[in-house]
Amino acid sequence: MRSLTTILVTGGAGFIGSNFIHWLLGRADFQGRIINLDALTYAGNLENLVDIEARYGAAAEETGAARRYFFVQGDICDRSLVERTFSKYQIDTVVHFAAESHVDRSILGPEAFVRTNVLGTYTLLDVARQAWRLPSGAMREDVLFHHVSTDEVFGSLGEEGYFTEATPYDPRSPYSASKAASDHLAMAYHHTYGLPLTLSNCSNNYGPYQFPEKLIPLMILNMLEGKPLPVYGDGRNIRDWLYVEDHNEAVWTIMQEGQSGRTYNIGGENEWENIRLLERLIELVAEEAGLDAARLRGLITYVKDRPGHDRRYAIDCSKLKKELGWKQSVTFDEGLRQTVKWYLSNPTWVSRVRSGAYREWIEKNYTSR
Ligand code: NAD
Ligand code: TDX
Fold this sequence. Notes:
This protein is α/β, with parallel strands linked by helices.
């Protein structure tokens, strides 16, 4: 029986990780503790977690409640820090989100991707293997390492077909190659050392707190600022979109009930050509922000294609649905509208993230370490 009570969340200050922490601590049936280990790269933002810190962090102790949220600033490649964190908090579960995650950056500078995604994942796996070994040499059975990965490891689809758990890996960008390597290491630690481990490969996420270098938040903010909307190539590449809360619910379902040593595909069953998605987003932003849709459409600018740009991703997630009973709960229209509203109602977050000024804000406002 998995313990799932003292959870090391890596990359918890990023987009999906911070949504995961909100989502899990908001569940009445989870009474455990979360330790968020994050290096606070450009993509990590503690402002995403201010309410969590206030409610479950050091401030909670002052009111006599048990502290359930801890933040550790550090690099997953730093072995001694990872070891200290395991030992100090007696970690029984890891959910590993930390990564360099943006394909365009991986094309410009692959080294950080190899370092964090490959070496960082190796470091976490190896520390977990040592920390969770019993004096008898056997591995504890109440522990779990959940490795979060992407559909991009499978490569690119043509007009037909879907990625299943049996699709051979065929990564085509430095980002997806580094994630593929991390997936192989994770599975190797399960097979070789018996590390209790589950792995998920998810399609494109969207929702609050996403750094505005990714398609949806970039386009929303550029519309609000009247800037060009850069569409790569012919705009007809296809992505399968999933609301971030649905991803997190799937991850938690797998952590609770997934079989150790198995991988699970998570997807939206919601394929959109980039240009069609942009047209829908324009309608929503125009409605929600009171802007003129025709003027926004005039901002669409076709630009040079991303090198090695994968044509189509589409996930077959029937195994997760059938075996573990998960399903998507947020429609694309609802999720996109909620996302647009979130960016509209958080102008301060947006301006700090756009200017990089949130770091000064953290220094001034964030006291608990
Ligand atoms: P993100 O870039 O928003 O956040 C990454 C977080 O990891 C940041 O908080 C950053 O500070 C932290 N980090 C980076 N390097 C680190 C290091 N060396 N040590 C410690 N922390 C470090 O990423 P995201 O979009 O939230 O993605 C999270 C995970 O989900 C990644 O593993 C990604 O591959 C995977 N994924 C993302 C998507 C998506 O659409 N965003 C889809 C499928 C899978
Ligand atoms: O300005 C843009 N113009 C554009 O046409 C950007 C930023 C993107 N695009 C296109 C490229 C892709 O076809 O939009 C699509 C989505 O691009 P991204 O948001 O960069 O996502 P993608 O490359 O599909 O990867 C995402 O999904 C899988 C995440 O960034 C990964 O972390 C995740 O693993």
